[in-house]
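Before our next group meeting I need something from you. Please put the record directly below this note.
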Amino acid sequence: MKTMVGASFVALTGVNVLQGIYPLLSRRPTLMVSEFDAAKATPESLEKLGRSGLVELWHGLPAGSSLPREGFYKGTILKAGPLHPASRLITHRVFAPSGCDRWLGKTVEASSLNGQQDSPIKGQQQLQQLGYGENTFRVRQAEAVERRGGEQENARPFGIRQALSRVDGRPCICLDYSNPALAAIGQKKKKDNVFPFSGMRDELREVRPGMYIGLGSMTITGGPYNSALFVLERVE
């Protein structure tokens, strides 16, 4: 039984990876993606594209002219690909801190910090606009709500910067959970990410103003090619 479950998981992971890299191999956009109206995008309309279509759309999107503005962004794990149920379970249960039972999205707390980042010229650094944020979760138990002072809790911090994607080498908005990234913006001493969350990386591209498609990945589960797809929508 364990062998069968393990083999099934490996097979599903393989399908998930293939659906993610197929758009890189195929240079011609599908009709569904070429006709997609990004200005009217919703999580529901995006899910209709399927995993390959979503990744294909993501490849063609811009990073955005600036970092996401400060504020709360509602998050949705897209139902795309054979592993999306596992992605939802991991995000809502494993990724959530103790006492929380659901991922709600991300809160950008600062988007206009300055810091030193590696330059394209080896051995040099350049000044770059940086940001900082945390994931927002729903607090589960009534006593926990009272103890923590609210029904939501921010945890799992990340640094924000523009970077080149590890998937296709084009610009993206990178949410970097590594502790060196947090140290670069002076946040490491406040909150650290422990393994395996310190190996997380989200790559965002802008669908329309205030909405981003993200590829969320963890080093321990194979990196960016075995990513989970999600949407962030700014809540005014």
Residues 1-23, 115-127 have pLDDT under 50 and may be disordered. Residues 62 and 205 are 6 Å apart (CA to CA). Helices lie at 2-25, 31-34, 43-47, 50-60, 84-94, 142-148, 179-184.
